Inverse folding.
């Protein structure tokens, strides 16, 4: 079946640096992508989303980039803070599958060093 | 705080037993989703309800069932439990029922341990 994957399972950055978390998706028909953040012991928290008619979307300290040509999604976090330490998941809608429900990647653990 | 509530937070039970997990969606949300998160499988979509009706099914076992009540809260029933059912179970809700246009907001989860 179609799947969403991640290039890096762990990422360690220095506080204040920018972080980039990458994600590859395999279904070229997917038209909606979301990034979630999950802190230890908590549920996934919505960060930002992007639709396939866009290639960039910015939020507060976060930017999502979508490259449909190579089916790649990235999350950029500016001035990374200790509170950003968490597991980050990308998800895509299961277009043509379970009525568009979300398929999640395995996650990337971001560790911020003070 | 997403506004989605789940009870209980932790549940420990034995193989062969049956448990019920409960979810209350955010105020105004009509759709509820259930997910299972395990170490080896990641976050897997189980089932979705919209305004009391089942809308979509994912990787849900026949031993599992769910329903959404008129007040929009939802319950996930897990029966004939096996060791492999130990996982975190999350509920999410959204305003409508279209995953490709609706943001899903997740609850804090229920950690199920089957001994």
């Amino acid at each position: 079946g179609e799947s969403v994957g991640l290039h890096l399972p762990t990422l360690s950055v220095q506080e204040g640096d920018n972080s980039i978390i990458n994600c590859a998706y395999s279904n070229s028909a997917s038209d909606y992508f979301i990034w979630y953040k999950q802190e230890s012991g908590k549920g996934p928290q919505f960060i930002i989303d992007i639709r396939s008619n866009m290639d960039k979307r910015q939020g507060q300290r976060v930017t999502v980039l979508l490259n449909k040509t190579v089916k790649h999604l990235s999350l950029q976090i500016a001035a990374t803070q200790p509170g950003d330490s968490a597991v980050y998941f990308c998800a895509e809608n299961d277009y043509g599958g379970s009525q568009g429900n979300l398929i999640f990647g395995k996650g990337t653990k971001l560790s911020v060093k003070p | 705080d997403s506004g989605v509530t789940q009870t209980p937070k932790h549940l420990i039970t034995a193989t062969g037993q049956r448990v019920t997990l409960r979810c209350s969606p955010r105020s105004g949300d009509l759709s509820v989703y259930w997910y299972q998160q395990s170490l080896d499988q990641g976050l897997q979509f189980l089932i979705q309800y919209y305004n009391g009706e089942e809308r979509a099914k994912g990787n849900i076992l026949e031993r599992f069932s769910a329903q959404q009540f008129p007040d929009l809260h939802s319950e996930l029933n897990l029966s004939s439990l096996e060791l492999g059912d130990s996982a975190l179970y999350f509920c999410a809700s959204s305003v409508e029922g279209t995953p490709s246009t609706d943001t899903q907001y997740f609850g804090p989860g229920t950690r199920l341990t089957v001994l």
